[in-house]
Amino acid sequence: MVLEKINKANDIKNLKPDELELLAQEIRSFLISKISVTGGHLASNLGVVELTMALHLSFHLPEDKLIWDVGHQSYTHKLLTGRKAGFDDLRKYGGMSGFPKRKESDCDAFDTGHSSTSISAGLGYVAARDISGQTHSVVSVIGDGAMTGGMAYEALNNASRLKSNFIIVLNDNNMSISENVGGMSKYLDGIRTAAFYNGLKKGVEGTLKRIPVGGEKVVENIRRTKSGIKQLIVPGMLFENMGITYLGPVDGHNIDELCRVLKEAKRVDHAVLVHVLTTKGKGYSPAEENPSRFHGTGPFVIETGEEKNLPERDSYTEIFSKVMCDIGRKDKQVVAITAAMADGTGLKQFGARYPERFFDVGIAEEHALTFAAGLAAGGMKPVVALYSSFLQRAYDQAIHDICLQNLPVMIAVDRAGLVGSDGETHQGLFDLSFLATIPNMTILSPKNRWEMADMVRFAVDFEYPIALRYPRGEAYEGLKEFRSPIVYGKSEWIYEEEDIAILFVGHMASLAEEVRMEIKHTGYSCSLINARFVKPLDTEILEQAASDHRLIVTIEENVRTGGFGQRVLDYVSRARLPVRVCCVAIPDDYIEHGNVDVLRKEVGLDKDTVVKQVLTEYITAVYP
């Protein structure tokens, strides 16, 4: 096998030309085999095999710097830098990350996980290189989906002023997670389909270069002018108009052609963009036919592409999807917005039924929230569905454009809490903290599937800013018998006893039940309270609990600082209530990738650890 010859960075340079095609085939077979067992990002990685090989052939790592936007397409890069053995534990706790990690390899120049960041990071590397008088190459790879993010344009604006080489590789597969949308997608599609352009361009350049004296110089001078060959043939050359040299489009599965254009890119003394056309999922027909399904997949059957171990019960996202469709049928003012995550957030079905009231704005979370604010000001009922970790990018818009005006925008905060295998950049551990700081914001979270449905309906009809927080995965089906109406700002007594009161947030219901039963087995009484609302805080129930309990325990899957528990502790302290508070939360740290159950044990959110903590705190409360 050719792949066996790759044991460290730059080994690919030792291969014979006829071995490169075999290596590409072996890499695809390797990735399909491994990801079918571990799960992971398949389609995006299959699409960049030849591109990654060309980058490793054209540059010398780690001296040259290669930055992957998002980074979920870095599996081939990891193979070519000697991390083949790590794929058996890919995305498992303690194993290899599914994203670039500087602590994992010197060849990973920058930790990534969120979109539209690589050009900014690359510019930083270029500035550092130039200031220190070094000469290495800096390459930022960015997808066409990521080019819908405003940060990419902020970086391009600055890149246009460079007086030294900086290579931007635009990996254009006409996809982000779902199919791309918007003006940039149409613009790039126009370039893709201008097949005559490359042929004509090469013909003109070839003719000019054959001029006996000065032909090469003529071509170079034409390239540098605003009326260059590309300007004449491709209308509105956005990148060239910004002062960034454009090369392409190039077949992203032709290694020779890729190496040729990358060599040309290295000669440019300013920013240059190489436009590469790839096919997401290439080489595996199920992934080519359904790239969104194989963007991030669990273990699957190679022969059919069918996912293994599919959940038996509806997820919180699926419940959200069904209720939204039902609400949309009855209320024509309800509109839905997502940021390139129609599938992941469950809004695809709403979009199919009510296309005129569905908006996929692309990877543009900031725009999504301000757009929703405009819709709300215009009399609509906007619902914005985002993953918790991506909502972080729109914090400013939540403050100034939604909450300052007290507009009725519902934010559906999906993937809240620990999400598992994608690791630090995707864990939704901060939303309770940053949302709770915003005046006029209401935050609620459901304990089970039935309360999820009730809360979606409550939030859509709420007349002020509101965030509904829920996790990834199957909806909890316990506590079915407890389904009282949602009342603004009010918690729910589930079991009312004494001694210890457990006050949990949302999907911590299951853990809270288990902890309560274990505490009762030790001989103590224990109440159970469903917080429901994180903000506003139900101070009435806190005062009631303080009157006949020695200890209030808060349980949440959010960082401790600024979280629900600290807000409870703050109120109890200011009100001088005669009760001790124990805050069970995520440590103030970034939590790496791994199975959610494993991670909960590591951070102290498992039953045994919580019971031990609670009993210790209770004894301290009784015998201070």
Question: Short summary of the structure?
Answer:
With 624 residues, the protein is an alpha/beta fold. The longest helix is centred in the N-terminal third of the chain and has 22 residues, at 17-38.
Give the key terms.
single chain, about 625 residues, alpha/beta, seven-stranded mixed beta sheet, five-stranded parallel beta sheet, 17 strands, elongated
Average predicted local confidence, pLDDT: 91
The percentage of residues in β strands lies in 15-25%
Tell me the structural class.
alpha/beta
Tell me the radius of gyration: 27 Å
User: Helix count?
Assistant: 25
List the uncertain runs: 192-200, 225-236
Terminal CA distance reads 68 Å
Strand order of the largest sheet: 7-6-8-9-11-10-15
Fold and architecture overview:
With 624 residues, the protein is an alpha/beta fold. It is built from 25 helices and 17 strands. Helix 6 (150-159) links the parallel strand 2 and strand 3 (166-172).
What is the strand and helix layout of this fold?
Layout: H1 17-38, H2 43-46, H3 49-58, E1 65-68, H4 75-80, H5 118-131, E2 138-143, H6 150-159, E3 166-172, H7 183-193, H8 195-209, H9 215-224, H10 229-233, H11 238-241, E4 245-251, H12 255-266, E5 271-277, H13 285-289, H14 316-330, E6 334-338, H15 348-353, E7 358-360, H16 365-377, E8 381-387, H17 388-391, H18 395-403, E9 410-414, H19 431-436, E10 442-444, H20 449-461, E11 466-469, E12 492-495, E13 499-504, H21 509-521, E14 526-530, E15 533-535, H22 539-548, E16 549-559, H23 564-575, E17 580-586, H24 596-603, H25 607-622
Parallel strand pairs: 1-2, 2-3, 3-5, 4-5, 6-7, 6-8, 8-9, 9-11, 10-11, 13-14, 13-16, 16-17
Antiparallel strand pairs: 10-15, 12-14
